Amino acid sequence: MTNRKTTLFYAVLIAIASLAVGMVISSRLGMTPSSSAQSVAPPMNSAPITGALTATTFRDIAKAVSPAVVNIRTESRQRGQDLNDFFGGQGGGDLFERFFGQPMPRQQQPQQPRDQLVQAAGTGFIIDKAGFILTNNHVVEGATRIQVSLYGEDEDQTYDARIVGRDPLTDSALIELTEKPDHVLPEVKFGDSGQVFPGDWVVAIGNPFGLAHTVTVGVISAIERPFPIAESRFAQVLQTDAAINPGNSGGPLLNLRGEVVGINTAIISEGRPGNVGVGFAMPINVVRELLPQLRVGKITRGRIGVGIGSVPMDAVDEFGLKDRSGAVVLNIVPGGAAAKAGLEPGDVIISYNGKPIRNRDELVAMVTATKPGTSVPVRIVRDRQERTITVNVEELDLEAESSQRAANSDNNNGGGAQETTSGFGITLGNVTPDVAQRLRLNRNAQGAVVMNVEQGSAAARAGLAEGDVIVRVGRENITSATEASRELGRVSAGGTAFLRVLRNGQETFVAVTKE
Asked: Quick one: which H or E segment has residue 443?
């Protein structure tokens, strides 16, 4: 009996000891994978900016933050041009033959164009002592070599770096030093770009025109300024009059505490090489939320496969809406999530996943932030009636989207004119076999092709273009120019015609107010 108790005692003791050792090993070795530890975004300070502006405020910011701002130099290879690029044909030999009527001698045959070495420069800032640096995507995109210069070191002292992850839609990129200095790296602190408002003081630090660590001061001129970042896609950026010039790209925009509230991205120069007081910065909150994905090298976003626009001011009543809140579905990607769910051009999306939609940009932000594979209820208004449609969100592939858009681009010229509309400013023709072939339509396609759009007309302002094929006016399907002209004629002056047009292989919604 004693032996049994002794054995049981030691068994329990060993189990407790094993558990304790296991806990120690876990705490020492970090049983949580490093990728999970890195997935946490850096903390940010959301406290309001308080305190007086003093004679040394900007000096203190420059002194504190400049060591974390770096100069980035890149090298990339671009294909050189040959004579064929300028004159067409099969190259210089073909050009020689066309001019002189005989083949070019072999010893004079032109060499294949060589890749040209292109050098560029930008700015970045250190966000982690391990050597991680944030910058603009356009600074490092396509780079075959990246070199980083640190503050206070000799100009010829550089460190190689590699791209960890990049995101064209926020023009942001995360790079990592592959060579490290023999001292501890400084790092920036993050502010809250959601607490930034017009009139707030900001400081920009960068390397304009190759002039290292230049400090400029200004204010926030505007927030949520729509800025084109890709075809048919916009980002809401900060506008500032703090001087931003070529070379500043990727540098930090700082609040009065010296915290990063934006990444300097672009300028409007009106053809001039430098600053005219209108610069743009990507809000740091947007990029901070992406950092976990940038660290693993892949950005995952949602997509439902629609083109959307704002609700026209003069068409609120026609849609059956109370105000302009919502986003109008302009076109549907064939075979995409929206098409499978039953969305149609002309639908107005008024809520997404239970949240009301104020405008187009708000809907885009909600969709891209949705995890692919998620089923989301979408509330719409169609024919003045509300209904809910469930959409299974897809994954956004920006490169595939751009390729598809390029493939759909074609020559939008119509056939012979037949009907001229009144109050809209368009001339219509029938979809003949020749027109269908030219516009790459289905053989059985019917409708009225837009032959001409008067400059400054209602149709021009609504975005109608030559080569658009009107297939529906209001609730009536259109098979000819005569039918389209008749239905458009029924719209009273000042009224709005809701059109569905075929454009680049997709049905697109267009609202035109008759003059």
From this structure: none
